[in-house]
Amino acid sequence: MFQPLNRADMARRLARDIPDGSYVNLGIGMPVLVAAHLPPGREIVLHSENGILGMGPPPADAEIDLDLINAGKQPVTLLRGGSYFHHADSFAMMRGGHLDICVMGGMQVAANGDLANWSLGRPGEAPAVGGAMDLAVGARSVYILMEHNARNGEPKIVERCAYPLTGAGVVDRIYTDLAVIDVTPDGLRVRDMIDGMTFKELQARTGAPLLDG
Protein backbone atom coordinates (compact mmCIF):
# COMPACT_ATOMS: atom_id res chain seq x y z
CA MET A 1 0.00 0.00 0.00
CA PHE A 2 1.28 3.47 -0.83
CA GLN A 3 0.28 7.06 -0.04
CA PRO A 4 0.79 9.67 -2.80
CA LEU A 5 2.72 12.77 -1.84
CA ASN A 6 0.78 15.94 -1.12
CA ARG A 7 1.68 19.10 -3.02
CA ALA A 8 3.97 20.46 -0.33
CA ASP A 9 5.94 17.20 -0.25
CA MET A 10 6.11 17.17 -4.06
CA ALA A 11 7.60 20.67 -4.00
CA ARG A 12 10.03 19.67 -1.24
CA ARG A 13 11.16 16.61 -3.22
CA LEU A 14 11.91 18.76 -6.26
CA ALA A 15 13.58 21.52 -4.24
CA ARG A 16 16.19 19.19 -2.82
CA ASP A 17 17.37 18.35 -6.36
CA ILE A 18 18.11 21.97 -7.34
CA PRO A 19 21.90 22.44 -7.32
CA ASP A 20 23.57 25.16 -5.29
CA GLY A 21 24.12 28.34 -7.31
CA SER A 22 21.23 27.76 -9.72
CA TYR A 23 19.11 30.47 -11.29
CA VAL A 24 15.57 29.11 -11.29
CA ASN A 25 12.20 30.27 -12.62
CA LEU A 26 9.11 29.04 -10.80
CA GLY A 27 6.05 28.89 -13.02
CA ILE A 28 2.47 29.75 -12.10
CA GLY A 29 0.56 27.25 -9.96
CA MET A 30 2.11 24.40 -8.01
CA PRO A 31 5.74 25.32 -8.90
CA VAL A 32 5.60 28.45 -6.70
CA LEU A 33 5.44 26.11 -3.68
CA VAL A 34 9.08 25.22 -4.29
CA ALA A 35 10.16 28.63 -2.93
CA ALA A 36 9.05 27.66 0.56
CA HIS A 37 10.96 24.35 0.56
CA LEU A 38 14.46 25.17 -0.66
CA PRO A 39 17.11 23.50 1.53
CA PRO A 40 18.64 25.86 4.13
CA GLY A 41 22.10 27.10 3.28
CA ARG A 42 21.79 26.46 -0.43
CA GLU A 43 22.17 29.57 -2.60
CA ILE A 44 19.43 29.43 -5.23
CA VAL A 45 18.35 32.60 -7.05
CA LEU A 46 14.66 32.61 -7.96
CA HIS A 47 13.39 34.46 -11.04
CA SER A 48 9.80 35.53 -11.67
CA GLU A 49 8.57 36.21 -15.19
CA ASN A 50 7.04 39.57 -14.28
CA GLY A 51 10.47 41.02 -13.43
CA ILE A 52 11.98 39.80 -10.15
CA LEU A 53 15.37 38.23 -9.47
CA GLY A 54 16.09 37.14 -5.92
CA MET A 55 12.51 36.24 -5.04
CA GLY A 56 12.07 34.79 -1.57
CA PRO A 57 9.47 32.53 0.06
CA PRO A 58 5.85 33.56 0.62
CA PRO A 59 5.44 36.28 3.28
CA ALA A 60 3.67 35.98 6.60
CA ASP A 61 0.20 37.56 6.53
CA ALA A 62 1.41 40.63 8.44
CA GLU A 63 4.24 41.20 5.94
CA ILE A 64 2.27 41.05 2.67
CA ASP A 65 3.10 43.84 0.23
CA LEU A 66 0.48 43.88 -2.54
CA ASP A 67 2.97 45.64 -4.83
CA LEU A 68 5.37 42.69 -4.54
CA ILE A 69 3.83 39.76 -6.41
CA ASN A 70 4.97 36.93 -8.65
CA ALA A 71 3.74 36.15 -12.17
CA GLY A 72 0.71 34.40 -10.69
CA LYS A 73 -0.22 37.57 -8.74
CA GLN A 74 0.60 35.95 -5.40
CA PRO A 75 2.44 37.91 -2.67
CA VAL A 76 6.15 37.07 -2.39
CA THR A 77 9.22 38.41 -0.62
CA LEU A 78 12.49 39.80 -1.93
CA LEU A 79 15.78 38.53 -0.52
CA ARG A 80 18.71 40.82 0.27
CA GLY A 81 20.36 41.72 -3.03
CA GLY A 82 17.20 41.04 -5.04
CA SER A 83 16.06 43.31 -7.84
CA TYR A 84 13.12 44.41 -9.96
CA PHE A 85 13.26 45.12 -13.69
CA HIS A 86 11.17 45.64 -16.81
CA HIS A 87 9.12 42.78 -18.23
CA ALA A 88 11.13 42.99 -21.45
CA ASP A 89 14.38 42.48 -19.53
CA SER A 90 12.85 39.48 -17.80
CA PHE A 91 11.98 37.90 -21.15
CA ALA A 92 15.51 38.62 -22.39
CA MET A 93 16.81 36.56 -19.48
CA MET A 94 14.37 33.77 -20.29
CA ARG A 95 15.06 33.73 -24.02
CA GLY A 96 18.80 34.27 -23.69
CA GLY A 97 19.55 31.02 -21.89
CA HIS A 98 20.35 32.66 -18.55
CA LEU A 99 18.12 30.39 -16.44
CA ASP A 100 19.51 27.06 -15.27
CA ILE A 101 16.14 25.50 -14.45
CA CYS A 102 12.51 26.30 -15.07
CA VAL A 103 9.92 24.55 -12.91
CA MET A 104 6.55 24.37 -14.66
CA GLY A 105 3.22 22.67 -14.20
CA GLY A 106 1.91 20.24 -16.79
CA MET A 107 -1.33 18.96 -18.26
CA GLN A 108 0.46 16.31 -20.31
CA VAL A 109 4.07 15.27 -20.88
CA ALA A 110 4.93 12.93 -23.74
CA ALA A 111 7.54 10.20 -23.75
CA ASN A 112 9.76 12.31 -26.02
CA GLY A 113 9.62 15.33 -23.68
CA ASP A 114 6.85 17.27 -25.42
CA LEU A 115 4.99 19.53 -22.97
CA ALA A 116 1.36 20.64 -22.97
CA ASN A 117 0.59 22.94 -20.05
CA TRP A 118 -1.55 25.87 -21.17
CA SER A 119 -4.77 24.64 -22.79
CA LEU A 120 -7.17 21.73 -22.63
CA GLY A 121 -8.60 22.84 -25.96
CA ARG A 122 -11.88 23.96 -24.40
CA PRO A 123 -13.93 27.05 -25.37
CA GLY A 124 -13.41 30.07 -23.13
CA GLU A 125 -9.84 29.24 -22.11
CA ALA A 126 -6.99 31.74 -22.16
CA PRO A 127 -6.23 32.51 -25.81
CA ALA A 128 -2.44 32.37 -25.59
CA VAL A 129 0.41 30.41 -24.06
CA GLY A 130 1.92 33.47 -22.33
CA GLY A 131 5.55 33.18 -21.26
CA ALA A 132 5.48 29.40 -20.82
CA MET A 133 6.77 28.81 -24.35
CA ASP A 134 9.71 31.18 -23.83
CA LEU A 135 10.61 29.48 -20.56
CA ALA A 136 10.27 25.99 -22.01
CA VAL A 137 12.78 26.64 -24.79
CA GLY A 138 14.99 29.19 -23.00
CA ALA A 139 15.87 27.41 -19.74
CA ARG A 140 18.76 24.96 -19.75
CA SER A 141 16.65 22.36 -17.93
CA VAL A 142 12.87 22.05 -17.61
CA TYR A 143 11.39 20.28 -14.60
CA ILE A 144 7.66 19.52 -14.55
CA LEU A 145 5.77 19.39 -11.24
CA MET A 146 2.31 17.82 -11.55
CA GLU A 147 0.04 15.07 -10.27
CA HIS A 148 0.68 11.75 -11.98
CA ASN A 149 -2.95 11.39 -13.02
CA ALA A 150 -5.77 13.79 -13.83
CA ARG A 151 -8.85 14.00 -11.61
CA ASN A 152 -10.62 11.45 -13.78
CA GLY A 153 -7.72 9.05 -13.37
CA GLU A 154 -6.30 9.45 -16.86
CA PRO A 155 -2.48 9.45 -17.08
CA LYS A 156 -0.79 12.82 -17.58
CA ILE A 157 2.39 11.12 -18.78
CA VAL A 158 1.52 9.84 -22.23
CA GLU A 159 3.09 8.51 -25.42
CA ARG A 160 1.90 11.56 -27.35
CA CYS A 161 0.28 14.80 -26.14
CA ALA A 162 -3.34 15.32 -27.16
CA TYR A 163 -3.43 18.96 -26.00
CA PRO A 164 -1.82 21.98 -27.72
CA LEU A 165 1.94 21.94 -27.19
CA THR A 166 3.87 24.47 -25.16
CA GLY A 167 7.18 23.10 -26.39
CA ALA A 168 8.46 20.10 -28.34
CA GLY A 169 11.02 17.87 -26.65
CA VAL A 170 11.73 20.37 -23.88
CA VAL A 171 11.15 18.39 -20.66
CA ASP A 172 14.14 16.95 -18.80
CA ARG A 173 12.53 15.60 -15.63
CA ILE A 174 9.02 15.01 -14.24
CA TYR A 175 8.13 15.19 -10.54
CA THR A 176 4.74 13.75 -9.58
CA ASP A 177 2.97 12.61 -6.45
CA LEU A 178 4.13 9.08 -7.25
CA ALA A 179 7.59 9.28 -8.80
CA VAL A 180 10.49 11.20 -10.29
CA ILE A 181 11.05 10.35 -13.96
CA ASP A 182 13.84 11.44 -16.30
CA VAL A 183 13.19 12.00 -20.00
CA THR A 184 16.12 10.34 -21.78
CA PRO A 185 16.96 9.45 -25.39
CA ASP A 186 16.12 5.84 -24.47
CA GLY A 187 12.74 6.70 -22.96
CA LEU A 188 11.19 7.58 -19.63
CA ARG A 189 13.49 6.32 -16.89
CA VAL A 190 12.18 6.07 -13.30
CA ARG A 191 14.60 7.85 -10.99
CA ASP A 192 12.65 7.48 -7.75
CA MET A 193 9.29 6.20 -6.48
CA ILE A 194 7.31 6.85 -3.31
CA ASP A 195 7.56 4.34 -0.50
CA GLY A 196 5.37 1.28 -0.94
CA MET A 197 4.88 1.64 -4.69
CA THR A 198 6.07 -1.02 -7.11
CA PHE A 199 7.27 -0.44 -10.65
CA LYS A 200 4.31 -2.46 -11.94
CA GLU A 201 1.85 -0.22 -10.06
CA LEU A 202 3.53 2.92 -11.39
CA GLN A 203 3.47 1.61 -14.95
CA ALA A 204 -0.25 0.85 -14.64
CA ARG A 205 -0.87 4.53 -13.83
CA THR A 206 1.30 5.82 -16.66
CA GLY A 207 0.29 6.20 -20.31
CA ALA A 208 3.74 5.54 -21.77
CA PRO A 209 6.36 2.80 -21.28
CA LEU A 210 8.74 3.29 -18.37
CA LEU A 211 12.31 2.12 -17.85
CA ASP A 212 13.21 0.84 -14.40
CA GLY A 213 16.19 2.53 -12.79
From TrEMBL:
<dbReference type="InterPro" id="IPR004164">
    <property type="entry name" value="CoA_transf_AS"/>
</dbReference>
<dbReference type="Pfam" id="PF01144">
    <property type="entry name" value="CoA_trans"/>
</dbReference>
<protein>
    <submittedName>
        <fullName>3-oxoacid CoA-transferase subunit B</fullName>
    </submittedName>
</protein>
<dbReference type="GO" id="GO:0008410">
    <property type="term" value="F:CoA-transferase activity"/>
</dbReference>
<dbReference type="InterPro" id="IPR012791">
    <property type="entry name" value="3-oxoacid_CoA-transf_B"/>
</dbReference>
<dbReference type="InterPro" id="IPR037171">
    <property type="entry name" value="NagB/RpiA_transferase-like"/>
</dbReference>
<comment type="similarity">
    <text>Belongs to the 3-oxoacid CoA-transferase subunit B family.</text>
</comment>
<keyword id="KW-0808">Transferase</keyword>
<dbReference type="InterPro" id="IPR004165">
    <property type="entry name" value="CoA_trans_fam_I"/>
</dbReference>
